[in-house]
Amino acid sequence: MLKLITQWLNKHLSDPQIVILSFLIVIGSVLIFTLGNMLAPVFCAIIIAYLLEGFVYIVERMKIPRIIAVVLVFAVFMTILLILTIVLLPLLSQQVGQFLQQLPSMIATGQTELMRLPEKYPDVLSEQQIKQVLDNLGNELSNLIQQLFSLSLASVRGAISILIYLVLVPLLVFFFLKDKKKLISWFTNLLPEESELAYRVWQEVNIQTGNYIRGKIYEICIVWSVTYITFILFGLQFSMLLAFFVGLSVIVPYIGATVMFVPVALIAYFQWGWSSDFAYVMLALSIIQLLDGNLLVPLLLSEVVNLHPVAIIVAVLVFGGLFGIVGLFFAIPLATLVHSIMKAWTSHQFKGDT
Length: 354
Known about the structure:
The protein is an all-alpha fold. It has 15 helices and no strands.
């Protein structure tokens, strides 16, 4: 067994290009795991720069110098961000406040409905089982309230962090856009001469990730807007809050859309009960999710990520477990990175063997 491992290492690690690629992967992983929290503003700025680069390219095609194109796109981005902050945040905070005010009555209504279940289905559920469920839910709710209270105690630190993000992230975005070629050239100059394999992987991942991030941001905005308009037309409470999370749920393929049915169904039930309005809202949400998966995603993300649905779900579970919410957002780009590395590695080995 040891001989086989030694032969494998001698075969693969004797190639300098594979050694360089492996070294870069290890260094990148160590940086993410050790400095991920400190470099979070940089990662956010890179994502936004990826999003805006497409617009800069469009403006550049009109024979406008890049620096002017960058300034124009950045100015429009900051204006839109300011408008959304002024209009959106107060509305979201207002609906969160209303939800917290109505939460006790919702909990009481839910407890009453649950206690009726043993009367309707005595052969399936007992009163003792329902009480046990209610006790568990009460404990979970108490833990959640304690976590929210601890977050409120750290509000000063959170405000400082937000202030840092508001200053640093836009500044980094501007420099990433303005000096894109210089930064890439500086990084490539640091690499050894025999880094063709690493460069090939970077090119593929760069194109795939950039297109994916732009497409996913557009998808979030479209799903969020359509869902909000739909909920407003039906008169559903907390329309903006629910639509906001429905839009964000598309970040996690397959799983996010399924999970968001639960809060929407609960709010609709507490508002209307088992009525036609409840059925219409759930039907409308189902149609939005079907159109998103079968029409919007193919239009925005066609041929961007060539991964099987099973691979996507596994990536979401693995990277979500490793990195939390950030891992959920980056699950598909990270899976694309792994796929590109394996593809380039096997292709390089095949060329070497022939």
